[in-house]
Design a protein that fits this description.
Elements: E1 6-11, H1 19-30, E2 35-40, H2 46-56, E3 59-64, H3 69-75, E4 78-79, H4 81-86, E5 91-94, E6 100-103, H5 106-117, E7 126-130, H6 134-145, E8 150-155, H7 158-168, E9 174-178, E10 188-193, E11 211-219, H8 227-235, E12 240-242, H9 245-260, H10 267-273
Parallel strand pairs: 1-2, 1-3, 4-6, 7-8, 7-10, 8-9, 10-11, 11-12
Antiparallel strand pairs: 3-5, 5-6
This protein binds 2'-monophosphoadenosine-5'-diphosphate (ATR).
2'-monophosphoadenosine-5'-diphosphate (ATR) binds next to helix 6.
Length: about 270
């Protein structure tokens, strides 16, 4: 069969997505011909758009980004453990029998970006996670799996942080604190920004005392959305500060391997995008 398999990324907005380029660059590494487009769907049109793509247009698999990750998880027929923990999915794959499988590669991709690309040893770190929304939920478990000593979750809305800590269910390592108390909770050696403040062009107003002497700071956003947090981290004396571009490439690599059975080289793609 010579027909090109169809892939896409669903989002809203989606026109600036880097996913088509990333997947094309991966495919070129193996000489695979790929059709990978963008599908813009408003939230109330998402389920129909998914049905059309997979059932009418012969779609093979798709990435899902904001604001559809929870909806993608909900409409799937099967869910991986990573997706169940996160309660959201960034990957939808059509199984041979036509049912849809949901998976979430965000946590694994972020941890791999930090440990393998940036050479950060996560074991024994005292970690501060800023935010408790979909992005935070998607990655929190992976840091515990990677061996952080403690995880402090702080969210503007305290109840959401408590709900995430309860869902994780590891009180010996996971605690929550109030956003208002950020100035008095000590310093951390790993700080991950999982809030959407940068995207919304809002200031987090973070105290510099949060940043420990050897602190690694990471913004899950990239580009201009990450600038305020990274500037704060550098001003506060962080040892290293990274944006989430590497995470994006790593999460895409996991999806690519799931779909094509081959592991792409991420470093040349990361450099091309950077
Ligand atoms: P995402 O999928 O990007 O995580 P989300 O689920 O809407 O999107 O979550 C956004 C996160 O950013 C939340 O933790 C939100 O805090 P609230 O739960 O209090 O809304 C956080 N956030 C957004 N803007 C913020 C700001 N200006 N200051 C602090 N936190 C902010």
């Amino acid at each position: 069969m010579t027909q090109t398999s169809r892939y896409a990324v669903f989002g809203h907005p989606i026109s600036h997505s880097k996913s088509p380029r990333i997947h094309q660059l991966f495919a070129e590494q193996f000489g695979i011909a790929l059709s990978y487009g963008t599908i813009d769907a408003a939230p109330d049109a998402f389920a129909d758009a998914v049905r059309r793509f997979f059932h009418d247009d012969g779609g093979h698999a798709a990435n899902v980004t904001l604001p559809h990750k929870a909806a993608a998880f909900a409409l799937a027929d099967e869910r991986s453990q990573a997706a169940v923990r996160a309660g959201s999915a960034n990957v939808l794959t059509r199984l041979d029998d036509g049912r849809l499988a949901a998976h979430n590669t965000d946590g694994a991709g972020l941890v791999r970006d930090l440990t393998e690309r940036h050479g950060v040893d996560l074991r024994d770190r005292d970690m501060l996670l800023l935010g408790a929304g979909g992005a935070a939920r998607g990655v929190a478990w992976s840091f515990l799996d990677a061996g952080v000593a403690s995880l402090t979750i702080v969210n503007r809305t305290a109840a959401t942080a408590d709900a995430l800590a309860d869902a994780i269910g590891e009180p010996a390592r996971v605690r929550t604190r109030y956003w208002e108390d950020l100035g008095g909770i000590g310093s951390f050696d790993l700080i991950v920004n999982a809030t959407s403040a940068g995207v919304l062009q809002q200031s987090l107003g973070l105290p510099m005392a949060l940043v420990g002497a050897r602190a690694v700071c990471y913004d899950m956003a990239y580009g201009t959305a990450a600038i305020p947090f990274l500037s704060w981290a550098e001003a506060a004396g962080a040892y290293r500060a990274y944006d989430g571009l590497g995470m994006l490439v790593e999460t895409a690599a996991d999806a690519f391997e799931l779909w094509h059975g081959r592991r792409p080289e991420t470093e040349p793609v990361y450099r091309a995008l950077r």
